[in-house]
Amino acid sequence: MCRQVPQENRRPRSGSLAITLTAIAVMWGTQTASGQDQSSTTSPQQAQRQVLPPQRQPAAPAVPVRPQPAVPNGANTATNAGAANANAARNLFNKLFPGTTGGAAPPAQPGAAAPAPANTATGTNPAMQALQGLTKGATPPVNPRNVTTPPINTRNATTPPINTRNVATPPGSAHNAAAMPGNTRNAAAPLQMASLTNSQANARAVQSRNFLGHPGPAGSTETQTRTGNVVRTAADGSVMDVHSPRNGMYIHHGLDGNRHIVVSHPDGSRIYASSRGTQYVQHPYVFRGQTFAHRTYYAQGQLTHQFYRPFPYGRTVLDVYATPRYYDANFYQWATSRFNAPQPFKWDYVSSSPPWFGYYKSYFTPDSSYSSPSSWLADYVLAASLAASYKTEPRTSPPPSAGGGAGVTPEVKQMIADEVDRQVRQESVEAQQNAQNRDPPPGAGSVVQALGDRQPHVFVVASDLDLVDASGRRCMISEGDVVQVVSAPQPASGSADAVVLASKGGGECERAARVEVALNDLQEMQNHMRETIDQGMATTNAAKKSTSVTPAFVASAPPPDSNAAHELDQQQQIAAAVEG
To answer: How far, in Å, CA of 128 to CA of 119, rounded?
Structure first.
């Protein structure tokens, strides 16, 4: 017999599946507008990377960087930010989504780069040449998860790019009770607009006390079995989630057919396994009294690793990205400045049109010139995310429709660039602290701290996630989609409200849909962006000429867990037994 149990929030979350590009660019000259050479010694970490011709760093006033205080658990900063975030989001909404509710005030531009200085440079800037790294036969990208092993030999132009995700995708899931027929990437479905009216938000979502941050769709129920497991089923009876308290295991059956497994242990260890894609095993380690999370990623037989700072918040623990490389102050000033004039840039994949770009061209097209490094990095992050997403799903359906209206607009790109600027500034603060041998305060650089600044924040989605829209419909977002968080973080529910700014159609959440996103998933989006931003910055000539340093916690970290594959396989077997 099964008995109904109260419902709450938690399901296994998808792991961050970042993939990066390696850039070969002929960028502007080394002389600043004042004619001074900004170059410095190339670091050992950069020695094996491809060398870019010098860049011109435009004269710009120093940009003061102010560290943001960490937001403690349940702090009033985040609570008070809720109304401000919502109001700012409504001000932006009317411009982004004409004809829908959300207010008519002009949009704010949070985190905008410093104003362009007067153009005092002499001579002309050489045109920037083709960026390589995403096309077949191009230089393989350096895996951003692997921060301590030597970089890939960039002279090997015949090695195909490393695929961090499993391209073998099973057919449509029997657990998909709400998905549209056919491939979920079918963007030809008519676009519907959701309202930002608070009374409608999550009106039909079923809240849960067992699956933190993940409400169920309309008609879903949770029952407890004789063994103590909690099973959440959709209205048609199909199983969506299983929680096994005895094993510390959460199992989720995604709309895309993937089975996600998360196992958490009392010592802070965590295992994330899935039926395809990148998986990881995470264990804590202590350095100078500070606890770090050492995450070993496993994809197609390869092991890489990355580091995070655990941050307890409410009823969950957020893994905050720990930067494995810092640059000098001059580099961060350049990275957050604006150019005197838009700089032309040619992306190699635009002319060669590899399969991923050919498929997503109507959803995303890069710009041909850039007003700042952050706007260039925004396109870099989008392209890397879409290239990774393409490797995950079969492409039997038509590509996203140009007439669907859900693609990445110039306004959305600018918002991503603003977010990039904020994240680079945060890294600059951390670099200063590292130079002073100081540890960041708890929660520094986390999504909780970011959302406490009373500004709307935009994130590029890191992996496929199942959500519930305002009508109670189960929908998904996938890597390369864009969401804007419009509320303060809620420690009790472990979530925040967001609006979908760009999606690919079909079974995905519609543009302008209001959804509730788990804080863990938002943190992984932020981690994904920071990892990819770091990889993009490393390809620039400014970074190659900057002094860089490896933090002591990275140099002293353990190697990738050689037992990761066995642990992942073991949890897959346990999950199969739990589901019977």
So the answer is: 19
124, burial (CB in 10 Å: exposed 0-12, middle 13-18, buried 19+): exposed
3-class DSSP state of 453: coil
Return all residues near 329 (Cβ < 8 A) that are at least 6 apart.
428, 431, 432
The residue with tokens 């769709």 is 217
By CB neighbour count within 10 A (0-12 exposed, 13-18 middle, 19+ buried), where does 257 fall? buried
SS3 for 571? Answer: helix
What pLDDT, in 10s, does the model give residues 143-167? 334 333 333 233 333 323 333 333 3
Phi and psi based region of residue 506 (left: phi greater than 0; alpha: psi -120 to 50; beta: remaining): left
**Which element (helix H / strand E) includes 505?**
none
13, 273 Cβ separation under 8 angstroms: no
Please state, in angstroms and rounded to a whole number, the distance separating the CA atoms of residues 403 and 416.
22
Distance CA 97, CA 268 (A): 42
Residue 90 pLDDT class (50, 70, 90 cuts): low
Cα(253)–Cα(434) distance, rounded to whole angstroms? 42
Residue, of 164 and 544, whose pLDDT is higher: 544
The domain spans of the chain are 3-107+149-161+188-579
**350 or 45, greater pLDDT:** 350
Phi/psi region, residue 356 (left: phi>0; alpha: psi -120 to 50; beta: rest), is alpha
Question: What long-range pairs does 364-370 form, CB within 8 A, spacing at least 24?
Answer: 364/407, 364/408, 364/480, 367/413, 368/344, 369/342, 369/343, 369/344, 369/345, 370/339, 370/342, 370/343, 370/345
Nearest to 15 by CA among 486, 392, 405: 392
The whole-angstrom separation of Cα 466 and Cα 260 is 11
Handedness of CA 400, 403, 404, 409 (dihedral sign): positive
Residue 232: pLDDT over 80: yes
Three-state secondary structure of 204-216? CCECCCCCECCCE
Rounded to whole angstroms, how far apart are CA atoms 165 and 147? 18
Predicted TM-score (pTM) of the model is: 0.69
**Residue 357: pLDDT band with limits 50, 70, 90:** very high
What pLDDT score was predicted for residue 324? 95
User: How far is Cα 342 from Cα 108, in angstroms, rounded to an integer?
Assistant: 22
Residue type, 501: L
**What is residue 575's DSSP assignment?**
H
φ and ψ of 484, to 5 deg: -120, 125
